[in-house]
Write a sequence for this structure.
C-alpha cells in the first residue's frame, strides 16, 4: 500500500506536547519518511521509485540493490542518536526566540558531549542556509560594515548586507549577509549574483565598489541615507556577542550570519509550524559534514 504522510494535526507549542506527539522512534521514523519521500521511496543511487515501501531506517533498493538510510544525504547522516532528538532540536530552534549556544543545546538534550552539541548546531545552521535560499528582489538596499566579536582579543570581519524594501509601505523584507575579505566591485558583483534577483533596483552608498559601470542587470541608485542594512549589521554584532560571548571563530562566522538571516526572514512566515517545516526541508536536503571537516575550514555554500 502507498505510504500515508504523517501529519502533525496540532503543532506542539510546548516540549511536553512535542514529546507526546513524537512518543516513539517509530513515529519519528514515519514522520521523517513521509517528509523525505512524500510520494514514496526513491533510491538515492539509481532514482528507482517504490510507492509501496513502508517506512524503515534502512532500505535496500529492489532495482539496483543499493542500501539507503533514512538519513543518507541529510545532515543527520551517520548519527547514532535517536531521530526524535533531531526533531526535538529542530522544534527547539524554531520555537524559541533569539538564538542559542551549544551549551544550551547540550543542556536541552542532556547530551554528555559538548562536541556533539556544537557539531549538531553547526549542521543545523548549514541547513538554515539551504532552506533560506530565496534571494532579495525588486528594491534592495546594500552596504557593508566591519563588526567586532570575540573574547579578550576581539576579532573583526567585514560583512556585506542586503535588505529588501517592500514598497509602498517601506518596510524591510528579506535580508542576506555574507562575509567578505575586502570590499570591491568583484566581491559586490559576486554577492549580487548569489543573493539578488537580476533586474532589481539597488540603493547603495556613494562608493566605487558599488558602482560598476559594466553591471547591466541592476539599476543602481546612490544614497546618502543608508540605514537599514547598517542597523541589521549592528543588530547582528550585538546578537553574536550576547548569545555566544566570544565563542565564535572567524572561519565559522558565515554560519552565524546564516542563522541570523534565517531567523529574521522566518519572521515573515505565518506560524511556528511553517518555520519548523522550512528548517526541516534544509535538514533533509543538506549533505552531512564530519566534525573534523567543520572545524578545519571556513563554511562556504
Amino acid at each position: 500500500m502507498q505510504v500515508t504522510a504523517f501529519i502533525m494535526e496540532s503543532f506542539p507549542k510546548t516540549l511536553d506536547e512535542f514529546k507526546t506527539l513524537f512518543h516513539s522512534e517509530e513515529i519519528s521514523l514515519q514522520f521523517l519518511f513521509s517528509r523525505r519521500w512524500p510520494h514514496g521511496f526513491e533510491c538515492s543511487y539509481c532514482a528507482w521509485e517504490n510507492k509501496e515501501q513502508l517506512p524503515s531506517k534502512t532500505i535496500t533498493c529492489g532495482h539496483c540493490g543499493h542500501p539507503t538510510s533514512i538519513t543518507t544525504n541529510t545532515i543527520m547522516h551517520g548519527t547514532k542518536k535517536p531521530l526524535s532528538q533531531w526533531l526535538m532540536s529542530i522544534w527547539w530552534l524554531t520555537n524559541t526566540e533569539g538564538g542559542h549556544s551549544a551549551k544550551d543545546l547540550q543542556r536541552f538534550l542532556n547530551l554528555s558531549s559538548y562536541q556533539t552539541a556544537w557539531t549538531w548546531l553547526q549542521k543545523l545552521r548549514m541547513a538554515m542556509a539551504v532552506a533560506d535560499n530565496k534571494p532579495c528582489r525588486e528594491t534592495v538596499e546594500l552596504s557593508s560594515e566591519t563588526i567586532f566579536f570575540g573574547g579578550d582579543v576581539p576579532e573583526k570581519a567585514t560583512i556585506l548586507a542586503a535588505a529588501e524594501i517592500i514598497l509602498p509601505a517601506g518596510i524591510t523584507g528579506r535580508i542576506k549577509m555574507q562575509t567578505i575579505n575586502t570590499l570591491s566591485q568583484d566581491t559586490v558583483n559576486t554577492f549580487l549574483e548569489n543573493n539578488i534577483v537580476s533586474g532589481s533596483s539597488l540603493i547603495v552608498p556613494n562608493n566605487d565598489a558599488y558602482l560598476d559601470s559594466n553591471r547591466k542587470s541592476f539599476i543602481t541608485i546612490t544614497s546618502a541615507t543608508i540605514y537599514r542594512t547598517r542597523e541589521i549589521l549592528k543588530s547582528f554584532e550585538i546578537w553574536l556577542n550576547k548569545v555566544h560571548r566570544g565563542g565564535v571563530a572567524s572561519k565559522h562566522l558565515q554560519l552565524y550570519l546564516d542563522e541570523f538571516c534565517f531567523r529574521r526572514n522566518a519572521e515573515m512566515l505565518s506560524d511556528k509550524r511553517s518555520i519548523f517545516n522550512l528548517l526541516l526541508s534544509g535538514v533533509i536536503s543538506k549533505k552531512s559534514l564530519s566534525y573534523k571537516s567543520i572545524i578545519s575550514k571556513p563554511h562556504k555554500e
Observations:
- The chain has ten helices and nine strands.
